[in-house]
Amino acid sequence: MDRHVLSVFVRNQYGVLARISSMFRRRGFNIDSLTVGETENPEYSRMTVTFNGDDAVKNQIVRQLAKMPDVECLTELERAESVSRELVLVKIKNSKESRQDIMSVVDIFRAKVVDYSTEAMIVEITGESSKIDAFVDLVAEFGIIEVCRTGMVALKRGNGSILNENDK
Q1: Do residue 68 and residue 92 come from a single domain?
Q2: CA gap 166, 108 in Å, rounded
Q3: Do residues 20 and 81 make contact, with C-beta atoms less than 8 angstroms apart?
Q4: How many domains does the chain have?
Q5: In what order do the strands lie in the sheet with 71-76?
Q6: Among residues 28, 121, 146, 163, which is most buried (max CB within 10 A)?
Q7: pLDDT tens across 33-79, in order?
Q8: Residue 102: how many other CB atoms lie within 10 Å
Q9: Is residue 111 a part of any domain in this protein?
Q10: 103-138 pLDDT, tens digit each
């Protein structure tokens, strides 16, 4: 199954998130990641939805979303034609014995320590999901206390916007 990323421009109104996530639930589709935030125009929000499925699943999801009155426009973001990032906070066990090794991994991945105590540290890292996964795998040996991931955000490369693209 392929991973798909949709950028969905929606009206910034009460209940839109619930209606869109319910559409996935009713049809038995799983959302891997869903991020939502206000756009440059406060009347609209952008949703970035990632899910796995074949082209038939993707086409059905796109058709169903396009029918929804809250959806202004949507587009699939191809990996080679877009920039995607994820933000993750990882709380790692901290000890005198492991501190230098943890800091080496933090430096190599260009992460940042945002909270520190003698027992634990919280590290912030941003990047593509594969980079995040590799970082989490490496620090797991030190003891992960907890992880919080934002989900993917993505934009298409170039000077166009989702609204301009869908006006054509």
Answers
A1: no
A2: 40
A3: no
A4: 2
A5: 33-38, 44-53, 2-11, 71-76
A6: 121
A7: 999 999 999 999 999 999 998 999 999 999 999 999 999 999 999 98
A8: 22
A9: yes
A10: 999 999 999 999 999 999 999 999 999 999 999 999
